Amino acid sequence: MSLFQNKKGRTTGLSRVKRMDRRDFLKSSLAFTAPVLLSHCSSVASTAQVSELDRLWQQADAIEASIRAVVIPPKVYQASAHQVQVLPSQAEAIQAVSLARHNRQALQALIDLCHQQGGGRVLLSAGVWPCGAIRLKSNVELHLAKDALLQFVPEPELYLPYVHTRWEGMELMGYQPLIYAYQATNIAVTGQGRIDGGGSNQHWWPWKGAWKHTPWQVNPEQEQKNGRDLLMQMTEQGLPVEQRVLTPNFLRPPLLQTYDCQQVLIEGLTLTNSPFWLIHPVLTQDLTVRNVKCISHGPNSDGCDPESCQRVLIEGCEFDTGDDCIALKSGRNADGRRFATPVQQVLIQDCVMKAGHGGVVLGSEISGGAQAIFARRLVMSSPDLDRGLRIKTNALRGGEIDTVALRDIVIGQVKDAIVINYFYEEGRDGAYLPQVRNLSLHNVEIGQAERLFELRGFAEAPIGLIQLSKVTARALQLGVLEQVSEIRTQQVQLNGEAWQHNPQS
After folding, report:
1. For the whole prediction, is pTM greater than 0.85?
2. Exposed end of the chain (fewer CB within 10 Å): N or C?
């Protein structure tokens, strides 16, 4: 079936595309995958197989129906010029910090007032609003009007005091995320405006240290490695979170984090230049991320990373990132096992993935496991997109990943199409064997890949059942298939020829 419209504008194929504006989805598909069409297959699957597939995807529909909606009271609290100051176009950097300090206090006071009076919408009108870290409260929506820019100023003092947060799957008392919510219910960040995290080759990003071509001067005294290593030690030693304080601290904060929250909506915004991950919900239930653009090409600029979350919908979004587009996580090593909370009941649909390390990714912080992960009607294509579907773990992470299903996917240009790798970072050096099983891909077009597969399991923990149906791929190489227990295929073509897995080859 085709993902496109014909010249007369009639929609062809994928008639159940919904919720996202169809015209935008079709336009995105055409823009990034013009040579790629979902194939017409002449033969029809058996009734039993169709029923099995239908039953699988009924779970996805049930997830979408189960997510509790955010309902914000109608009262509006508008940030005015005498409360929150707009940055003049010729302002000096020192003035920006001063304004950001003032605006942080004023905007937080407005959010607190809205919360205390029962909730409502805190509105930022058009203009540039320099700010420091802010904290959302229950029943409050932060709304950015069209042409509003919430500009987070990259001065570390504006992200103090430290708060209870997670960094790469490990808890600590760290910098406050730029927009942060802790144990809040019924909250939203919405609008047609833009939120800029202030990350650049001069600010935040150099704390990464050496990275790719390293477009900054590396300062060994101001990079994350030492703090990252120390935090790992604290985690493995079981040090209480309130004692996990790094001095100095060069672990960059995410742009938006909800921690132990319920009923969360993030909608409509453009997020740019994050110091670290862009959207990082942790232990959050009933989460909707809709029609958001994530554009950030700095180090660790993951787009949306739900961690140990349940009932999640990510739809209609666009990702153009310096790291994974969507990465599902559940804690690193000891912390992940301590919480033992999988990321589960996740539905990703109608999204476009451009640049990034991976389109739909699970891991690497996946020690708590993952269950019931679904993705449909996605377009992934870019010379700068490394992988389509990627699962990355190792014997220190471990984790049980069960039931990951993708359908109606266009992968245009990519390096590796399907990756399951147990040898990420520490590889076999650990006592916690990963378990990945019940992976399903249906109606998938792969237009241009260097390798179709990179599947690398352990002999004592082989990768579980993979089912491929109606998959058409063009790739320079088949790739790597090591320690895979079973791959079932139906109507699979590689470079124009039928393909079946032969474990002896």
Report:
1. yes
2. C
